[in-house]
Write a structure and sequence with these properties.
31% helix; six-stranded antiparallel beta sheet; Rossmann fold; elongated; alpha/beta; 9 helices; seven-stranded mixed beta sheet; 2 domains
């Protein structure tokens, strides 16, 4: 049986482990753990050791010690150096249609960019970023209302069905298909602050951004009354009224009974259902936004008011210090 070491620190690791356990002998899992971690719990039930040190130095030492036939990477946040990948056969699970969308946050970017499809690619790891031969690839359609969580669920399921068998084929000599580097595209790392909504953008663009950042990601956000407001659920309004006098971000309708508010975008109307002030509980939008005179987004007047408030506070502190 093929001996495998799994490196997996994200949400893809559980089905990766399940698939590898069905076809291989898993020597260990490299992963941060906590008491409720389903990956660690599954490993412990199967008497598979979990190694919580995810540093490259620790992985290097572990590969030298275990001498696995293959090291499988399913969600790791660092690029492995040539000195490490030359120690064994290294295989990576990458959720994009390689050679397109090499790099980071590929499922998020696919929704943000309104792509028709997402994908899973299982490929050999080479020194160049996501460049190695493709051993397995499958595309899935992105539906209009799919969130990033929906796509991860479907891609994880495909990984669970195919990873173990793909690894066994590769260890037994299958070389895969060489990527066409001329067709390569890249996605950069996304940071929480990249999730701010531009209400002057199209309704579709705003909707895509919101759907791309739902839990377990940090959420798309705007500002309301000077406070950061996360938007977790929304959808475009079909056949909206035509506003020739348009202020993007302005609330133009509210339903207390249904809990939603309608906000103007650059070209249409978005209905917002679930929101959350940072540090508070999630709630329906109408519980927070109570007037059609309200606007979403960071307003110049909000900034000026906050500056005046801070100036007054500083002045008071200086007066009291005398």
């Amino acid at each position: 049986m093929v001996n495998v070491l799994l490196i997996g620190i994200g949400t893809t690791a559980l089905t990766a482990l399940e698939s590898l356990m069905s076809k291989c002998h898993v020597q260990g899992v490299v992963r941060h753990t906590d008491p409720d971690d389903p990956v660690a719990n599954l490993a412990q039930q199967a008497n598979i050791p979990v190694f919580p040190d995810t540093s490259q130095k620790a992985i290097h030492a572990l590969v030298l010690k275990l001498q696995p036939d293959c090291v499988v990477v399913s969600s790791y946040n660092q690029i492995l150096p040539p000195s490490l990948i030359e120690l064994s056969t290294f295989i990576n699970v990458h959720y994009s249609p390689l050679p397109q969308y090499r790099g980071r946050a590929n499922v998020n970017w696919a929704i943000i960019n309104d792509e028709p499809c997402a994908a899973i690619s299982i490929h050999k790891i080479s020194p160049d970023l996501d460049e190695g031969n493709i051993l397995f690839q499958q595309l899935i359609p992105i539906h209009n209302d799919d969130t990033v969580a929906d796509l991860y669920d479907r891609l994880n399921q495909i990984q669970g069905q195919n990873l173990g068998e793909t690894v066994v084929k590769a260890v037994n000599g299958y070389q895969g298909v060489k990527q066409n580097n001329a067709e390569a595209t890249y996605g950069c790392t996304r940071l929480p602050e990249d999730g701010e909504i531009n209400w002057s953008a199209s309704t579709r663009s705003v909707d895509c951004l919101i759907r791309s950042l739902v839990t377990p990601f940090p959420g798309a956000y705007t500002y309301f009354q000077g406070k950061k407001l996360l938007i977790w659920q929304a959808k475009p309004v079909d056949n909206p009224p035509v506003y020739v006098g348009r202020i993007p971000g302005r609330i133009i309708a509210r339903s207390k009974a249904a809990g939603f508010v309608d906000v103007l975008t650059g070209d249409g109307l978005l209905r917002i259902f679930e929101v959350q002030f940072a540090g508070e509980e999630r709630t329906v939008a109408a519980n927070i936004i109570k007037s059609v005179k309200s606007s979403l987004g960071l307003q110049t007047s909000d900034l000026l008011n906050r500056i005046q408030l801070l100036e007054a506070q500083v002045s008071e502190l200086q007066k009291n210090a005398k």
